[in-house]
Specification:
heterodimer, A: alpha/beta, 22 helices, 9 strands, globular, B: alpha/beta, Rossmann fold, two-stranded antiparallel sheet, about 20% strand, flat
Chain lengths: ~525, ~450
């Protein structure tokens, strides 16, 4: 038997500079050794600043689960997550959609998930990408620093999950579902965008929630002083001054709709208010991610590209692995043209990575054109500090506006179409030439500006003396109105939360007039 | 130092609860969709899961969004080839942005139907919901046939107990031959010679030629031994293991005859009820038998063997003579299904019309010829939805068959007016199960 068991001799300990792995299979030891080498490059050479890493290996099914709870490890129960699951599962099963190689969460410690199906080469790539690239970005970008609480997010989600479950037990699943449905409909309009509010300490929420309840029971609200007036009888007139005073008291206008409803709805019960708070807190938590998709992926892709090349230079990964990684890398950073069947918008990996590389190029070897367009950084030689400064202090829109170079616009062959709804044709407004760069850069930047993409909707007034009607205003720009069908459905949800009638104005910002008004009473 | 955590063994189905919530919410729609699938599908496929498509209403998640058809906007796009500033481009028909393949509907407000796959379990749950099957029966219906490992060739890896010694040695031998590994016998021969020569040398009886031969022999032997070490007797590449594949255990075959009256009085509703009954019986049989053949016989005043499509969907007019169907069934049975090999099940659905002279003939045929051959014969008579039940309420055929019932243990008859009535027919069947032992 001993002869059967004997296998060809293996070298005892790998000498340094031998590749860390040779085969496609991964195991935890190899992962650990690869991680250590990646960490050496990330911290010593790139001087990245990261949260401690927590690395979790999951199966495809668990990856699908993670997809559906917006990437979070815990989430309250809701049918819409089941719908997403059913949907993604179908796409995956039929092979229309591959699953992500990793998911990474903005938390401290930074949790990232890796698929068990990945080969060791892919694990190397995604470790560099997620555990260092994204991790650095989360820890250093100003939006994340200002708006999110990575220390407390998991505790908060745990609280949210338990709270929702408890509500379901106490008040019935249907009632809870109805409230969350309505809150989800308003999620996108329920973030603070401009005000700098004190950073939310999510771990303290539960205590604060009790205190707040006690306080609010004692506190005076302007709403309660009034009773809805009987229909048919006109409301007593109110002076301009009184109206202004009332608005001041209610902090109007208010951009965060759920916040306003939570604070001032005359009909909501306390647990419903807490549900609204949970939904809007989660929305707020994800708001920075939506503003930095391009940069976040650009940063992570740049980091993984740098790291795997360094690993290869040091002889730590074999040539085959490098080729596999590069193959996957170029798949991810592929940008099809607008007329390609595969086109589905500008690929944030492609543009983000290209811009990071371009900044490196401009810092080190600028052309005359770069000196003219990017004088602040051209030729400063220190690409690493420049990039880290960029990662820390910009969001997609300002990043593009500042750093999209003519060189890249030519490379991507960008052009901008002017699309006027009432004209039968598009007009090419600018292309990648001397006359067009500035307008083009503006157009690309705008396409990342959430305040352009998302409808700007605010609570402008509550008719307190009259029928307590809540008045929302959509600040229309460039004549773009809201989609009618879904608007009416969302308004029906608002009506449920508010308890009284809701009116919605289409307000033309450029002309200063109300173009249209719809209502649900 | 990172923390590595292996989550793969964590409980799966984290989203099971959410999936159930979703299905509950979409229940009514899903039920409609399942009914549609059942109508369109063949009996044999009815028990599988299904992709159902439901309208998005009720499960949509509305959000405020900009309408695509109003206002002015700028669209930056990559991949310019021929445009210069100022070019005018016709908008594609039906609105939507250039190159935005996904937004075929303007404004994105069209309610695309939501398509998803129900698992077989979920499908059966919904299918049976109105049939009022007890959970126990549901569970046993869903129960897959038991699997047994069966030999299925050889594989390169496996566990030691499955090692196939013969194959392994054969590969080992051919490899050793191909690589010219010195055989033990050859080495032994040489070793013997060396020993002999050495013995001679010790006695100083070896001449110069002998000395030379000894040196050569020792060298050769060392060479051979080295070769033997380099080429192992059994190498991992030689190893072959027996491979096993789970295969359903062999069970007897069954044939299920579906008999249905298709004269004008059987409408859509009646046929739908009959179909559900047939599906249920088929599911039940499939659980018990590896192979279930379906034979469809429809009749008016004459009987015909038809395919499923025709069975349920084509119309024919004529009188009603039930015995024609029974004759046909016997004919098929004798021609194709020997009772020694096949378990015979028969399900007959009718609205009960028959001529009284023919009913007598039917009873006769059943009692003397058919029932002795059958495992089970089920007759359902489909009533008008508003008719009350009573043993006496039946029509001609019912009254006739009632006489048969006390005599035959494997004969069941039921009135069915609604879906919920279908199950009780099966209760008898399941109750009888231990005694009858369906598989022969």
């Amino acid at each position: 038997m001993s002869e059967i068991m004997s296998s060809p001799d293996r070298p005892a300990a790998a000498p340094p500079r031998r590749p860390l792995f040779e085969t496609a299979d991964w195991d935890f030891d190899t992962m650990q050794r690869v991680f250590d080498e990646i960490e050496r490059i990330a911290l010593d050479e790139l001087k990245l600043d990261v949260y401690p890493n927590q690395i979790e290996i999951i199966s495809a099914e668990q990856m699908l689960d993670a997809y559906c709870s917006i990437g979070m490890p815990l989430m309250y129960g809701h049918w819409s997550f089941g719908k997403k699951f059913v949907h993604h599962e179908k796409l995956y099963r039929y092979g229309y959609q591959a699953l992500a190689y990793e998911i990474v969460i903005n938390s401290n410690p930074c949790i990232s998930y890796y698929m068990e199906e990945n080969t060791m080469a892919m694990q190397t790539l995604v470790l560099a990408h997620a555990a260092f690239g994204h991790n650095h970005f989360y820890k250093n970008n100003y939006l994340f620093k200002q708006w999110t609480d990575p220390d407390g997010v998991l505790d908060y989600l745990d609280f949210a999950k338990k709270y929702v479950a408890e509500c379901e037990e106490r008040h019935g699943a249907a009632a809870v579902e109805e409230t969350i449905d309505a809150a989800h409909a308003l999620m996108n309009q329920s973030v603070f965008r401009y005000k700098r509010r004190s950073r939310m300490k999510m771990s303290e929420v539960e205590r604060r929630e009790r205190e707040r309840r006690a306080h609010e029971e004692r506190a005076f609200s302007d709403l309660w002083r009034t009773v809805p007036h009987p229909p048919g009888k006109p409301a007593p007139p109110m002076t301009e001054k009184e109206a202004a005073e009332r608005k001041r008291k209610l902090n109007l206008p208010e951009e965060n709709i759920l916040y306003f409803i939570e604070k001032h709805s005359p009909t909501l019960r306390e647990w419903q208010r807490e549900l609204l708070r949970i939904v809007r807190n989660i929305s707020q938590y994800f708001y920075p991610q939506r503003q930095t998709k391009l940069m976040n992926e650009g940063c992570a892709t740049f980091v993984h590209y740098h790291i795997v090349n360094r690993l290869y230079d040091k002889g730590l990964i074999p040539e085959g692995a490098l080729l596999e990684i590069l193959h996957s890398h170029s798949d991810v950073t592929f940008q099809p043209g607008y007329d390609d069947a595969r086109y589905s918008g500008v690929n944030p990996y492609a543009l983000g990575f290209a811009m990071m590389q371009d900044i490196e190029r401009v810092c080190v070897a600028p052309t005359a054109e770069d000196r003219e367009w990017l004088p602040e950084i051209a030729g400063n030689g220190d690409w690493l500090s420049t990039l880290k400064d960029v990662w820390a202090n910009y969001r997609d829109e300002s990043f593009v506006r500042q750093f999209l170079s003519p060189h890249l616009m030519r490379k991507f062959k960008f052009f901008a179409l002017e699309d006027k709804a009432d004209e039968p044709q598009y007009r090419v407004e600018a292309i990648h030439n001397e006359d067009g760069y500035r307008a083009l850069r503006g157009a690309v930047a705008e396409s990342y500006d959430l305040s352009e993409i998302m409808p700007d909707i605010q609570v402008v007034d509550v008719d307190l003396l009259g029928d307590r009607c809540l008045i929302l205003r959509h600040n229309m720009r460039h004549g773009v109105r809201l989609g009618g069908k879904s608007r009416d459905k969302v308004l029906a949800h608002v009506r449920k939360l508010w308890g009284y009638g809701v009116r919605m104005q289409e307000f033309d910002v450029e002309r200063g007039t109300i173009r249209d008004e719809v209502g649900v009473s | 130092m990172p923390l590595f955590i292996d989550r793969r063994l964590n409980p799966r189905d984290k989203n099971f609860g959410n999936r159930q919530r979703f299905l509950r919410r979409a229940r009514e729609r899903v039920k409609e969709a399942v009914d549609r699938v059942v109508r369109e599908r063949g009996i044999a496929d009815a028990g599988k899961g299904a992709a159902v498509s439901i309208p998005a209403g009720g499960i949509d998640e509305p959000q405020f969004h900009h309408s695509d058809t109003t206002g002015d906007r700028r669209r930056p796009l990559p991949g310019n080839k021929t445009f210069v500033a100022g070019d005018l481009i016709d908008k594609p028909e039906g609105g939507g942005g250039e190159g935005r393949g996904k937004q075929a509907s303007d404004s994105g407000e069209a309610e695309d139907p939501f398509v998803f796959a129900l698992t077989a379990d979920e499908f059966l749950d919904i299918l049976f919901e109105d049939l009022e099957l007890p959970d126990l029966v549901k569970a046993s219906l869903k129960d897959t046939t038991s699997k047994e490992p069966r030999r299925a060739g050889y594989s390169n890896d496996g566990v030691t107990p499955n090692l196939n010694v013969l194959r392994t040695m054969r590969f080992s031998l051919s490899r050793r031959l191909a690589l010219r590994r010195p055989t033990e016998a050859k080495v032994k021969l040489l070793a013997d010679e060396v020993e002999k020569l050495q013995a001679l040398q010790a006695d100083c009886l070896l001449d110069a030629k002998g000395q030379q031969r000894l040196r050569d022999a020792v060298e050769e032997m060392q060479g051979l031994k080295k070769l033997q070490r380099a080429i192992p007797y059994i190498d991992p590449v030689d190893l072959r293991y027996n491979r096993f594949e789970p295969k359903p255990t062999p069970r007897a075959k069954a044939v299920m005859f579906c008999l249905m009256d298709v004269s004008g009085s059987m409408g859509e509703r009646e046929k739908d009820l009959a179909k559900r009954f047939f599906i249920l019986l088929h599911l039940f049989l499939r659980r018990k038998y590896d192979r279930v053949d379906l034979v469809f016989i429809r009749h008016t005043h004459e009987a015909k063997e038809v395919d499923e499509q025709e069975f349920f969907y084509s119309r024919e007019s004529g009188g009603t003579i039930v015995s024609a169907a029974l004759t046909k069934m016997l004919e098929v049975l004798r021609a194709r299904y020997s009772v020694a090999d096949w378990n015979v099940y028969c399900a007959q659905a009718s609205d009960g019309d028959n001529s009284s002279s023919d009913t007598a003939r039917c009873i006769n045929m059943l009692a003397s010829e058919i029932l002795p051959l059958c495992q089970y014969y089920a007759y359902i008579e489909i009533l008008d939805e508003h008719d009350g039940f009573s043993e006496e309420a039946g029509k001609e055929l019912w009254r006739g068959y009632r006489l048969l019932k006390p005599k035959a243990a494997n004969f069941a008859m039921k009135h069915v007016a609604r879906r919920a009535d279908i199950y009780p027919v099966f209760r008898e069947l399941f109750a009888k199960q231990p005694a009858k032992g369906a598989a022969k």
